[in-house]
Amino acid sequence: MREKNSGNPYINLWFGNFFEPAFSSEEFRTEGIDRIRDMGFNSILLDSKAWQDFFDRYAGQEATQYVAAQEHMISEIQKSGLSHCFLAIYLNGDNLYPNIRYSPPVFGEETTAPSGEPGKWYKYWSERAQASMTEHVKELYALYGKNATRVSVNGTEDRLPLCSMWDPIVAFSFDKEGISRYQTWLEERYGSIEAFNQAYGLSAESFSAITPDEYWYDENGAKPTAWDFQEHTPLFRRYTDNLRWKAEELTRYFRSMQEKLHALDPALYTSPVLSQWGMFFNVSSQPRFRREPGGLWDTCQRGIDPYRIAPHVDNCTFLTVPILEDSSPSAYASSCQNSMMRAMNPDREFTVGFYLGRYLYYDIYNVITPCEMIGMAAASGASGYQSYGYGGLDDGGVMHKLHDPFVSSVRTGNQWLKRILPKINGRRLTQAAVLYPAQMALTEPYFVEGNPRRRQDLLGYYQSLCDLGLNVDVLHPDQAAQGILDQYRILAVPADSCYEEEINPQFEAQAVRFVEEGGLLLVSAGHPLLRRAFGIASESHPAQCIRYRGEGIIPGGEVFECYTGGEALAVYEDSGKPAVCRFPVGKGAVLALGMEYGAEYLMQETGAVPVPYGNRDLYPLCVAEHDPMQEAVSAFLPARVPVQRGIETAEFEDCYVVVNHTSYPWDCSGLPGKKEFQLPAGESLLLPHSAVLIEKTV
């Protein structure tokens, strides 16, 4: 994807002008644009939310201070040789100047609060609201489109990138129309009032008779617990139904808006930012500042399934932050989310998103460098990236405040990206996939006991397979059901406590076919797929150390199983029962792991050796000499590239992109070919937290 004004790959940065000093200072805005250009960006995303100021300007009124500031920015952007695009629609109709306050979306149709007062959220399903959004986009380009960013997509298409929504959040509307809409949805979901009553523990005579307090989750009331999820209590049903309704409304919204925007101008390239905090692994949690994880920034609590939204946008993307849920740095958290975005955009160009303008979370960009992040973008197969941000509020958008080494790393990374992306002409090879736990991701929030650990199970599988030198995708069950597993040799199925809430028989049939035809299936403890699709029997087992190849491994999780039948590769220390088993199926095999393997792989600490084990040689999986999953995978599919933990190697048809996630230099001479380093230090030395492009030799 090339930005046509510069001829370089599309590299975009958000620049907000509604915060001070940008709001008032022409000098700050001009200097900021110069700095953005100097860092190597070629497009600036203007925060042009549907505020009254814009509609007044469209009607010929004098520009407000905010609009005048944006018009000044557009002029300066053009002078600088850059181009601009628009963040056109926000999750609601808020205004953030001159003071932070919510302002209802007066142009569209707003929700109604439980009190009967106007809500602060759009009715996403409202034709009136969607029409106002479409009108806003139309007028933005009519008035400010002269120097708008244009990109070539898929080599030929001339398109206009548009952030058609930022952080979508669906809200319920407690008016007559909103209540009726949800009641109809419940009737369609349950089919009969009897089935609904049984699920909710009610005795309603009809769907029209039930009230919001009976079917809508009260955020100030009792929160569903792990027990509610296990027992499928009425509170669980109410909570998860709310989220499924939100997900369906959001998908319908993007489908409708895509039609409207393409009818307005087929050149519009819709690229909403579906989350500014990351997807699934990391939420707005800041323990040091006593901010609890979750809330509206937990994508689960927002009812969002980006894989199902993807067909209704031109570029399905979101921003990533390279942290785990405890705010500790993790480059693989961003790498894995990049893999999600690649899978969400099959057979088309895509961009990834960063949150580079973030300084909290233990100063993550002193540990993970911008060069490293940009290297991961190239490794993902993305054809560009967008980032937040410059000139923002408190902990967001503060690139104007960050130190010179950070700025230099951004500049170096961008210069390298412009040189190397045109050299990546072949497709990214596929070898292994990890299954996205779609139902858990949609419905089980962070605050449910054990959920953060279950989410890490996916990431741990991804990181472990990357550490084996494999190319790893993250697939939605819907995609796997469509027969694309033929592209892979290995499929990992991490924990999904909500798997049976939406059974996908087509996926299960494809999983069986995948193994029978020679694939290797890796499944975490507790996943129903083993029983449902393969008839593999298991039972719960107390937490015990695991013995594998004479080595003791201290497990750190809470879910353990043992298996009946199959070939026992590892056993529990005390009981001797099988903890890791291999089951031949057709030409392939199932590897049943009696733990949440991925979460164990990520665990970087452990308590003291339990007293009953005395002074035996026992360690967590992260330092074990022998790893039963990795050794089974390596025996099944030997690595094509040199392997070292923390070295991410993405193989394309014509080249490799290697990213060093460690704090140590890595000798990449084992991969022959012309090398283009971000940070040159000899002919074969890849410096810590940096990347290299290696063109394959003929």
Topology:
Layout: E1 2-3, E2 8-15, H1 26-38, E3 43-47, H2 52-58, H3 65-80, E4 83-87, E5 110-112, E6 118-122, H4 127-144, E7 151-153, E8 157-163, H5 176-190, H6 193-200, H7 212-215, H8 226-231, H9 234-264, E9 268-270, H10 306-309, E10 319-320, H11 331-344, E11 352-354, H12 360-363, H13 370-380, E12 384-390, H14 404-420, E13 432-435, H15 438-443, H16 451-467, E14 472-475, H17 477-481, E15 490-493, H18 505-516, E16 520-523, H19 529-534, E17 538-540, E18 546-548, E19 551-553, E20 561-563, E21 567-572, E22 578-585, E23 588-593, H20 597-602, E24 618-619, H21 628-636, E25 647-651, E26 655-660, E27 666-667, E28 674-677, E29 685-686, E30 690-695
Helix pairs in contact: 1-3, 4-9, 11-13, 13-14
Description of the structure:
It is a single chain. This protein is an alpha/beta fold and 698 residues long. It has four domains: 2-172 and 244-423, TIM Barrel, CATH 3.20.20.80; 176-243, no CATH class; 432-636, Rossmann fold (3-Layer(aba) Sandwich); 647-695, no CATH class. The chain has 21 helices and 30 strands. It has a ten-stranded mixed sheet with strand order 14-13-15-16-23-22-21-18-19-24, sandwiched between helices. The chain has a six-stranded mixed barrel with strand order 1-2-3-4-8-7. A hairpin with a 5-residue loop joins strand 21 (567-572) and strand 22 (578-585). Helix 13 runs parallel beside helix 14. The protein is globular and about 80 Å long. The two termini are 26 Å apart.
